Structure formats: C-alpha cells, structure tokens
C-alpha cells in the first residue's frame, strides 16, 4: 500500500511441482515494500540496504522500487523516476530484474536474487532463477490499493469509496478490485508448472482470510470475520502456503502487522493489518523460520533502525 521469532519445525507436503531426488535446498526469501527505496520520505538507499542485510535473503521481492509522484492519491499515483533496484543489487552483489511492464499486478517492482536470473515470465510478474541447478520461480506482485476494503468497512476516508457494512460486500469489492490482477498472475504462473519451487512476494493491499477470523475478532484484532478472496485464491486455487501463517497459525496471538509504520495502532484514522506476504509452493516444503522485519518490537521480530518504509517486511527460511 502506498501510504524472528523462530518457530518450531513445521513441514507441509504439497503436490509435486517437478521436485527431483536430490539433497534438500534451503533458501531465505523476503518481501519488502521499500517505499521508493526511502525516497518518498527523503531517506537514503543505505537504510533500505541495512534492512535487507539484516535478513540476508537469497531472493527478494521488492515493491515500489520507484518513487511516488507528488501528489500521490487514490485516483492518480503513477510511479516516477528511476528504479533503485539496480543500485541495491549492485551493492549486494545480486542479480536483479526490474518489472517494467504496466498491468494490474505491478507498481514499480523488482526481483533480486543471489542466484542467476534466467528469464522473465510473459506478463513480467516473475522470473525463473537457477538455484544450483534447481528451477525456482519468484513472482513479485503489487495489487491495486484502491478501493481498500478495511478502510471502507471502518469508515476511514481513502478516496471516493463508499462505506461497506458486511463481509459479503467487502468480499465482492475485493474481487472487483484485485480479481483481474490475480487472473493475470495465474496466467504467468503456468510457466512455473515444472519448477522445483515457486515463491510469491507482494504488497497485496488486501488482508488474509487467515487473519480476519472469529478468533481475531474476539481478541479485538479485527472488526469482523472476512473470507478475503485473494488469499483464498493463493492458498486454494494456486496451492501456495502462506509461510508466515504456517509458522504462526494463530492470528490473535501473532498478528504480524505489516501496514503501517506511520501511525499508532490505536489511530482512528488508520487500521493496522498484514497485507504483505511471502507465499511458497514446493514438494515437501518445510518452514524453518519466519518473521516480520520492522522498526520496533513487539511488532517486528527482526528490528532495524532507522526504518525507511511505511511497510514492514516479511521473511521466511524454507527447505524443499
């Protein structure tokens, strides 16, 4: 949106996606909305680099790698200026791919990798990566942030969007807002049918059905239970695991808020939520650890200061 604790070993076996008999591969992956590499708040790229180095990921999905225009609002916010992905990758010694196309699933994104990037997918949403001879695909998505249904449900002003009062209305509005982007992603995902592993990173601008539960409502975390459609499609239709929720299945005990670092949790003009995700799909996928990276505890498991973004990052270490 534009505006670590170590878990017990958890193993989840999915349908095979081309895995071969070989030694297990271990990767650390990270999703980070970098807010123009800090440029939107006048911060140096060094601060963004410090966050990435604190995680030391093998593959990173960057969101908002280009600055926002001024003004940037719900009606008009087209990325402007050069991407900082090349500079960040160069200073890390990583390969990188800037997502240059314009479509409903992109907004100034990039993918960085410790391993060679082979080629992009047709719609620019992902890349194939050669991880020591294993075929891995990484996708980085930035879905539309308007209209934003949590604000609509809570009567928080964000552009000319009507107030919503029911879960069904929120689900319908979310499908209309982000359904075309997920349709496009599922087209690109076909390229990864025979991959050893697939990861999806992103600022989805929509919460998860795993977070807006009756238990979270009872704990005062959310206003009502909502079966958010985008996360349902990712975990159901596309067969991905929400890596953070595999490690921490209780949203009341471990909410994992990534939006936002710019307001207090009790601010009546905002609503804190988890809208940044790391998804994974592989045969015999094991989540070794997962966490939130941010400016302070207890919101963040890995704390980095100063903090350069209006989002917290999410990370996971997996084996497949």
UniProtKB/TrEMBL annotation:
State what protein this is by name.
Answer: Endonuclease/exonuclease/phosphatase family metal-dependent hydrolase
Taxonomic lineage from the root: Bacteria, Pseudomonadati, Pseudomonadota, Alphaproteobacteria, Hyphomicrobiales
**Which keywords does this Swiss-Prot/TrEMBL entry list?**
Endonuclease, Hydrolase, Nuclease, Signal
Record has Nuclease as a keyword: yes
Q: Boundaries of each Endonuclease/exonuclease/phosphatase domain copy? A: 30-311
Per its UniProt record, what Pfam families does this chain match? Exo_endo_phos
A Gene Ontology molecular function term for this protein is: hydrolase activity
Signal peptide positions (record): 1-21
PANTHER family in alphabetical order: PROTEIN CBG08683, PTHR41349
**InterPro entries assigned:** Endo/exonu/phosph_ase_sf, Endo/exonuclease/phosphatase
